[in-house]
Design a protein that fits this description.
Number of helices: 5
CATH topology of the largest domain: Elongation Factor Tu (Ef-tu), domain 3
Strand order of the largest sheet: 3-13-16-15-14-17
Radius of gyration: 47 Å
Order of helices and strands: HHEEHEEEEEHHEEEEEEEEEEEEEEEEEE
Largest sheet: 6 strands, antiparallel, barrel
Number of strands: 25
Strand content: 25-35%
Structural class: alpha+beta
Distance between the termini: 98 Å
Shape: elongated
Length: about 400
Amino acid sequence: MDDSSARNADLSALRIDRSRKAKPPGRGKRWLRLLWLLVPVAAYFAYQVTIEKVTPALKVRTAQVTVLTGRDATAELVATGYVVAQVKAAVASKATGRLRILNVEEGDSIKTGGVLAELDNDDIRAELDLARANLKRAQADSVAAARNFERQEKLYKNGHSTEEAYEAATAWYARSVADVEAMRAGVRGGEVALENTIIRAPFDGTVLNKHADVGEMVAPFASASSSRGAVVTMADMKSLEVEADVSEANIQKVKVGAPCEIILDAYPEHTYQGYVNKIVPTADRARATVLTKIAFTDIDQRVLPEMSARVNFLPVAADTQGVASEPVTVVPNEALTTRNSRQVVFTIITNTAQETPVEIGRKLGDVSELISGPSVGETVILSPPGGLESGDKVEPTN
């Protein structure tokens, strides 16, 4: 190839290819800037999703907003308490000894003075026998002393005896009379000591608990670890009453003689009629409550001491046979809390807590009348933690 051909080839390589379309200037840079904007946004949303999945849900107890009807809705006040026997005793021995006889078991009924148990008392019986024998001897001596005194008195008056003999006879007679009284006192002491080994029922009642068995040592105050104090606990089942604490703020709603309804937790389907028997004239400073005692108008064998019960305090003029009443929406007291000086509850919506303001009316025991707030059937959180806020993830545990 000559020099002319080589130059033409080099010039042809420098020609512009008109078949290729030119890219608009700066388009690549705009995509790059857009990518830099999208990456942080996508990372933020990915972070939020990840945090939401990783953050554990707060485990909470829940309950539902419910409706009270009938007598529960009529009640001016509702309180909870326990059945308590007003006549109750832990019966113990007045003597110390080994339990020899136990005549009763739990649930047995016994009359006043009935023998519940007896301690070993052979030694006391022996001492009582000795005291009685000494009394007989003293009585015999007193008879001899009396006859001698009468004889010496006649002789002395007739001048056939000396003054010394008469005084000696008088002293012997007086001493013998005193000996008889002393021996009688000894016998009475032995009888009391023997009676102290016999444990009797102080009133008509039912044995609730047995605290000792035959063969165990029994002492009045159970001073030793190996001895027992009370042998049995008994109560008069006719004296059962419900003792319920009423808040100081509501005690003015309770009147002596006012009708009540008693619902035992053991038999929620049965209602017992009662009345306010007593308002104890003192308050519990720590709990700000006043103790009330509710007597049963009708009672049966199902009512037992220490059963838990709910008491509906009814209006004084209420018909105890039941009246129609408007239903009342209630919320558990445990669900109520305060946020920003207002009373609220926390409901659960799609596993998240939602703060809801409420307006509360009457306190009805463990629940309160709900004037405004969540609807019936909505789930509320019980005892919400102080740091709980709307939107927090929660997980019901019940």
